[in-house]
């Protein structure tokens, strides 16, 4: 049984940093493409970042490029999202997702339908 468990969310001030973690069980990160999505109240879920199964390729939404960094630790089977220079607009529930989709690209990475497994999410609130 596959499980993705996020942690690390919280309440921070604008300009602060936060690191989210997503620990997987029942699947290996080295065989899966991993991503972070977020959903703010009243808004649609949006793509944040993804890392290809090779670990060598990463993708970012324009809104977070230069501020967020995705990485993974295969030994811990955990993917991270390091967030810096946080803005109130970053306030959302952040969820990680996994897919073994073979033709993973910038285009497919942003599509929620591509992902097979989802975590429950962790709340990030950025105050101004």
Task: Offer a concise description of the structure.
With about 130 residues, this protein is mainly β.
Explain the overall architecture.
By secondary structure, this protein is mainly beta. The chain has one helix at about 105-110; strands spanning about 5, 10-15, 20-25, 35-40, 45-50, 60, 70-75, 80-85, 90-100, 115-120, 120-125. Strand 4 and strand 5 form a beta hairpin. The radius of gyration is 13 Å and the shape is globular.
Quaternary organisation of the protein chains: single chain
Question: SSE string, helix = H, strand = E?
Answer: EEEEEEEEEHEE
Instruction: Tell the overall outline.
Output: globular
Q: Quickly count the helices.
A: 1
Class per helix and strand makeup: mainly beta
Low-confidence stretches: none
């Amino acid at each position: 049984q596959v499980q993705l468990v996020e942690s690390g969310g919280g309440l921070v001030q604008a300009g602060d940093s936060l690191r989210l973690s997503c620990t997987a069980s029942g699947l290996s990160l080295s065989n899966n493409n991993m991503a972070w999505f977020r959903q703010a109240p009243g808004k649609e879920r949006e793509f944040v970042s993804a890392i290809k199964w090779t670990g060598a390729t990463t993708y970012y939404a324009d809104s977070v490029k230069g501020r967020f960094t995705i990485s993974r630790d295969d030994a811990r089977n955990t993917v991270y999202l390091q967030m810096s220079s946080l803005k109130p607009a970053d306030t959302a529930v952040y969820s990680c997702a996994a897919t073994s989709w073979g033709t993973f690209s910038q285009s497919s990475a942003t599509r929620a339908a591509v992902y097979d497994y989802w975590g429950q999410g962790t709340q990030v609130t950025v105050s101004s």
